[in-house]
Amino acid sequence: MYSANLGAFRLTWERHTEFSTYTFVAEGTFEIPFKNPAISAVPNDWLAKLPGQVVAALHIAAEIAETQDLRAQNLSGFFDNNRLVGGVLADGKARLWTDFKLHGDQFSRFLVHGFDLRATMLGRMSQRLAGMETYRMLALPCARDARPLVARAETTLTGILQSLAGQDATSNERALLRQLTDLAAGRRTHFWHFDI
After folding, report:
1. What's the domain range around 93?
2. Alpha carbon of residue 102 to chain centroid
3. What is the DSSP pairing of strand 10-15 with strand 20-25?
4. Which of 61, 123, 146, 151 is the most buried (most CB within 10 A)?
5. Predicted model pTM
6. How far apart are CA 160 and CA 194, in angstroms?
7. Side by side, which strands form the sheet with 58-65?
8. Is residue 105 part of a domain?
9. Dihedral angle of Cα 9, 12, 13, 16, to the nearest 10 degrees
């Protein structure tokens, strides 16, 4: 891990087994979340020279207030009026909102509003959010690729269950067991439905 305070922002670089993370933190107040994210202070030519491909990029706008009330503004407006998902964190001491969308700058957005919360706790929360989003984005292509396989397996399993529910499923037990075993082993099978 490498960390440095570079004036307008603080940089932390961490190398993991599967990827590296670059975290840019800019402290201060903001009126509009995501308007001037920390990465806007990073030189574009330096960013362009970073090796590898971007798997996940996210902006986390975090604020600590003295009260639980969030400013009376339209939260969805901070997320291009997308539908929001939110939750309560840290035993009710923080609230989180996101839309799980990539915005025009190819970053996802998370808004955290904490009250009666230490800055270190807010930092740990932000790290966990970044970690979860990174692994979600790493898994997304695998989940998309698996969708047709899962659909075929569901179709095959439905056929097996329908045959088992038939009047005389015992005459097909061996064929059904073979199909079920092939399905569990991940082998491609063709299902023949027997009506008796």
Report:
1. 2-143
2. 11
3. antiparallel
4. 61
5. 0.69
6. 10
7. 58-65, 108-115, 94-98, 85-89
8. yes
9. -140
Q: What is the mean pLDDT of residues 31-37?
A: 90
Handedness of CA 58, 59, 65, 70 (dihedral sign): negative
Any domain includes 195: no
Question: Residue 120 in contact with residue 127, Cβ under 8 Å?
Answer: no
CA dist 78 and 46 (Å) reads 28
> 163-181, pLDDT tens digit by residue?
777 766 666 777 778 877 8
Same domain, 134 and 166: no
Structure tokens given for 25: 């933190």
- The amino acid at 105: D
Distance CA 49, CA 56 (A): 17
Write phi, then psi, for 111 (nearest 5 degrees). -115, 125
Task: Quote the mean pLDDT of the chain.
Answer: 82
Mean pLDDT score, 43-54 = 90
